[in-house]
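Researcher: Structure prediction, please.
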Amino acid sequence: MPYVVCTQNITYDDGIPVWIPRCSPLRQRFTDPVMRHLSRSVLVGAYFFLGVSGQAQSWCGKYYDPSQIPQSQAPPPGGQFSLPTASQDPLLAFRCSLSSAGLLDVTVSLGGKTLSNGAVPLNATAYEIAFSLDGITAQMTPYNLSCQATYTASGSSSTQTFSTSTALYYLPNPTNSAVIKMDLRTGALLAKPANGQGGDYQPVFPIGFYTEFQYLATNLTVIDELHAQGFTISGTRVTKPDGSSDPLNATSTTYDLIYNIDGYHPVSLVLNCQDYYWSTYAAGADILMLDVYMTGVNVNVSSKFNTTCTTVYGVCGCDNCSPIPAGDTNAVPPNTLSSSSVPADSGIGSFFDVSDRVSSFINRMEVMGWERTKAVWTVPQAFGGDPGDLQPSVAVTGRGHPRARNG
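Model: Predicted structure follows.
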């Protein structure tokens, strides 16, 4: 049974109280009953690094090689996320996505036909209104699902009306692939049981690895072989486009292309920068991954280029990460201290950088109205090889929305 999830939150508009209707798609795609079975719950993502054009190289918009641009001459990177002005008055964000003192009367309709309606309390989060897909034909292109709400304040004869829409994906049964759905109430992936015996969709624990694309490009049958063995191939197509300053529309363009070819798998994207054109790059994904390299590095000084790393210059592997203060023992990575306390100017990264990055991503998604249409995962990684080079490890872990609930 699909649901419309109505969420109302405080939002901001230069101090002016407004009702902001939003209706955004939940990338849980419904399909006809017969599906292929999955025998592994492993994600395999192929990635590649794009070269940086021009003479001076940058990462997260910051130049880092003093032989190309001296640190004293480096311009700021730009592209920082702009937070809205805080309002002194309570505001309402009205959002509808597939599975606010008073009530909102919400009606859900498709092509002029009412599918369901319900009374939604003000200040509710993820309030579900169920509807049936009976009589709706499966198709590759999304339907436009409309949400309308009316509200009459206590003691008032004036009725306010708010409307918005979202995309409803109801896909035909695939003939040559398995299906992965997303439950945006939790950020989890859902798949048929891997034992081949059928049954309802169940959550998948995502664990897998990055791999260079070169050897796959010369023998694409490897991908077919992995698929035949039951492995789930995620829609990851580029990792860290913000780091290498790829074209700002690259992720959205690729996202649309992937869904035109295959709408049965969510698209994931790894972002490396702490705050560099985040909203533009993040627009092109269902799952936003972050990889915070705070283990085994000096987050203050680049050992490769012998430069300090600031918000304007340098690359130390952990963008805009903060070192653990001297004497502090909280959030210290294992096997990094030769003594019982952190020395001064150590540059040791903190595990708090990981949780802070996750929180900042989620806060930005709320500002953008994406908290019910995207999930945030974190990617634990390691360093190796040439000092300063990035070498990913073999684990990927998932993290759902902090407000999510089962139901």
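Model: Residues 352-368 form the longest helix (17 residues).
Researcher: Thanks, that helps.
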